[in-house]
Design goal:
The chain has 405 residues and is an alpha/beta fold. The protein is built from 14 helices and eight strands.
């Protein structure tokens, strides 16, 4: 059970507290976490690790004053994501061992390969789009864990309330002279659709507020000295890098070995390349044999001409500015909510469910649903473990720092 000492909150905890008090009670008061990661979480974690590996490599190159090739940046990203992929595979294996009636070895291999392909494709698309960051910006921090005291209206630290998190990436723009916060977000949907929401994103607002006051706090574990340079530089700009987990799809072949003319979620270049294969040797028939060269049909040309090479739906860097007014409003709200969290930890607020949050057709499955409906000690021990810290994602980032940026 979490103790009611100095309360430290994260954006994830506050979001959970707002959406469902029962879920918050399981997760942040009783410190219960699922024993195995869901696949979407494993994919997102591996993508973050790959990008962290990329930018740590860029940081080291910038320190030495050397330029790295794109291949070297790709290799660094691969090294970063491989550990997380190995952890996911180990989790799948343990799941299979624990319940032989569930996942079998073929399903384990298929899921492992699908996860690796999804992560690798997403990271490579990012490298292709933003490898130029090495030349355009200076890396100040990568996956940097932080903890900062919240401030009252008079500027004094509020007693026993800390804000905690992890900066995905912090850059300095030498052309404009400002410090930029970068957040990486993976999604299953169109990367362009996030733009209308990020201006009120509490996480980036809070991170900008904290980043702008880094000189008021003790030096964070593993922080490079570069993070404490440019203290007079403006802080308010955010690069919100949205990465769609699935990439442009390969067009399908019909039973007669020609390329399908049906709508396909892909780019003009991908469809054009498939058409060239049709023209050169044809596609596979139902029996697997190639049909031989076939010209483009009028319908295929029509489909091609309607396509574009806009990759924004798969990878998009949104840019937003958080004003001082927005930051101060966020600060006031967190001070109030932090007080409510303190009361809830002490058992002075009722624990109530929010069934509407997880019963809508568009709701994500809640992994605590079983114990929410019927809470037993056996149910808890079967599917959950008790962690040592309510904010393990920050603790793990601090451990990963190991003195590195």
């Amino acid at each position: 059970m979490r103790l009611n000492k100095r309360v430290t909150v994260t954006n994830s905890e506050l979001q959970t507290f707002r959406s469902c008090r029962q879920l918050w009670d399981f997760t942040y008061r009783h410190l219960l976490r699922p024993k195995r990661s869901a696949r979407p979480l494993a994919v997102g974690s591996a993508i973050h690790s790959g990008l962290a590996g990329m930018y740590r490599f860029i940081y080291e190159c910038q320190k030495l004053g050397i330029n790295a090739s794109t291949d070297e940046v790709v290799n660094a990203a691969h090294r970063g994501m491989n550990n997380k992929l190995a952890e996911h595979l180990q989790g799948l294996y343990e799941k299979m061992e624990a319940d032989p009636r569930g996942l079998n070895i073929d399903e384990l291999v298929d899921e492992s390969r699908a996860t690796e392909a999804e992560v690798e494709g997403t990271v490579l698309r990012y490298v292709e789009a933003f490898a130029s960051d090495m030349q355009n910006y200076r890396v100040l921090a990568v996956e940097q864990a932080f903890a900062a005291p919240m401030l009252a209206d008079d500027g004094r630290a509020t007693p026993r309330l800390m804000y905690r998190g992890v900066f995905d990436l912090v850059l300095f723009d030498p052309n404009i002279g400002d410090v930029i916060l970068c957040e990486h977000k993976s999604t299953a949907g169109d990367a362009r659709l996030v733009e209308s929401k990020i201006d009120m994103d509490p996480q980036t607002t809070g991170y900008i507020w904290t980043l702008g006051r880094r000189h008021f706090t003790a030096k964070w574990k593993g922080a490079a000295p570069e993070l404490y340079e440019h203290l007079d530089a403006p802080v308010g700009r955010v690069f919100y890098n949205v990465l769609r987990k699935s990439g442009p799809k390969q067009p399908k072949w019909t039973k007669d070995g020609t390329l399908s003319s049906a709508a396909c979620d892909t780019t003009r270049d991908v469809y054009e390349a498939a058409l060239r294969i049709q023209e050169e040797r044809g596609g596979p028939r139902e029996d697997g044999k190639l049909v031989g060269p076939k010209p483009r049909s009028e319908k295929q040309i029509e489909v091609l001409n309607a396509m574009s090479n806009d990759t924004g739906k798969w990878m998009k860097r949104h840019e937003v500015w958080h004003s001082e007014e927005e930051q101060q409003r966020w600060r006031r709200e967190v001070v109030v909510e932090g007080g409510l969290v303190r009361r809830a930890i002490a058992g002075k607020l009722p624990v109530v469910r929010n069934p509407g949050n997880c019963n809508m057709p568009w709701s994500m499955p809640c992994r605590y649903r079983g114990i929410c409906r019927h809470d037993t000690q056996a149910g808890r021990e079967l599917d959950f473990k008790v962690v040592a810290d309510p904010h393990m994602e920050v603790v793990e980032s601090e451990e990963d720092q190991g003195g590195a940026v």
